[in-house]
Design brief:
With about 290 residues, the protein is an alpha+beta fold. Helix content is about 35%, strand content about 30%. The protein binds zinc ion (ZN). Zinc ion binds next to loops.
Length: about 290
């Protein structure tokens, strides 16, 4: 198993923890979308978070989507994970190149900028459950910590890290630690102090720490109990049929324009950049299925 996620509890269930190792997943996204280093870090953090949050999904067709719309040069990102931590995602502007911060670290917050984070849980109800918060720093981890507190009333600590240079992703991973309802004040105080004392995720990843090591470092004094381990991977479920449906849905008028060009159309899947070519004749056939808008 290359990338994986572990679920754990501590302090007799007062604390819940998830941690992930996501290097292959993030590297796949980097290659498919030709991402710059800072976008690799931003999208990689968001994908890692979505995969960890997907371990909450109960139904096999459930999906979680994390969406950012922002004013920084990235402009936005969309990431989704199914209930088996098969995750995919893309950035609106994959090639952002901005100077690193004074510390030498990639400036993810600067690339993302101000904006909003939406968390959409599609769990088979008529309407999906949507929570939306303002971005706090654009660094993703902080923003999700704020989301859990503001939108789900769950005190949490989210740490996400991607180490990347021009040759590729070196390490990627993260953790989510949450305090469950009914946890004692003593547990909360002790946990807060502990979390303030730990190194940055990127440092832990650079030191070669696994998800198990990271949770052991944070929760070793809290009676950490690992419950399960599951694989995580980049996976896109796009098909030619889905792309055809998307084409039909743009409406007869738009399709007529493509037909007038006489050159067919090339469509790319947003999530995995896969190319789908349609000849002029195929567009003409799809046009018959489209409605006049
Ligand atoms: Zn795709």
């Amino acid at each position: 198993m290359s990338d994986y996620i572990i679920n754990a509890v501590a302090e007799y269930g007062e604390i819940r923890a998830i941690a992930a190792s996501s290097k292959e997943t993030v590297e796949t996204a980097r290659k498919l979308h030709d991402l710059s280093p800072v976008v690799t870090a931003a999208l990689g953090r968001l994908m890692t978070a979505a995969a960890m949050m997907s371990t909450d999904l109960k139904g096999k067709d459930d999906i979680i989507t994390l969406q950012i719309r922002s004013l920084g040069p990235i402009q936005g990102m969309v990431v989704t994970s199914d209930s088996t931590a098969r995750v995919k995602g893309y950035a609106f502007n994959p090639q952002v190149d901005i100077p690193p911060r004074a510390t030498g670290k990639l400036d993810v917050g600067g690339a993302v900028g101000e904006g909003y984070l939406s968390v959409i849980r599609d769990i088979g109800l008529r309407e999906p459950y949507v929570g939306r918060v303002q971005l706090q720093s654009g660094e993703i981890g902080d923003d999700l910590t704020y989301y859990f507190a503001a939108s789900e009333q769950t005190p949490s600590s989210v740490g996400l890290g991607v180490l990347v240079d021009s040759s590729g992703v070196k390490e990627a991973g993260g953790f989510i630690i949450q305090v469950m309802p009914g946890a004692s004040e003593e547990t909360i105080d002790k946990l807060e102090k502990k979390i303030l004392s730990i190194p940055y995720v990127t440092q832990m990843l650079e030191d070669g720490m696994s998800p198990e090591d990271i949770l052991q470092l944070i929760l070793g004094d809290f009676g950490l109990k690992i419950l399960d381990k599951r694989p995580m991977e980049f996976y896109c479920n796009c098909t030619r049929e889905r792309v055809e449906k998307a084409l039909i849905s743009i409406g007869a008028e738009e399709l007529d324009k493509i037909i007038a060009d006489g050159e067919g159309a090339e469509l790319n899947c947003h999530f995995c950049s896969k190319k789908y070519d349609f000849t002029h004749d195929e567009i003409v056939a799809l046009r018959k299925l489209a409605v006049q808008k």
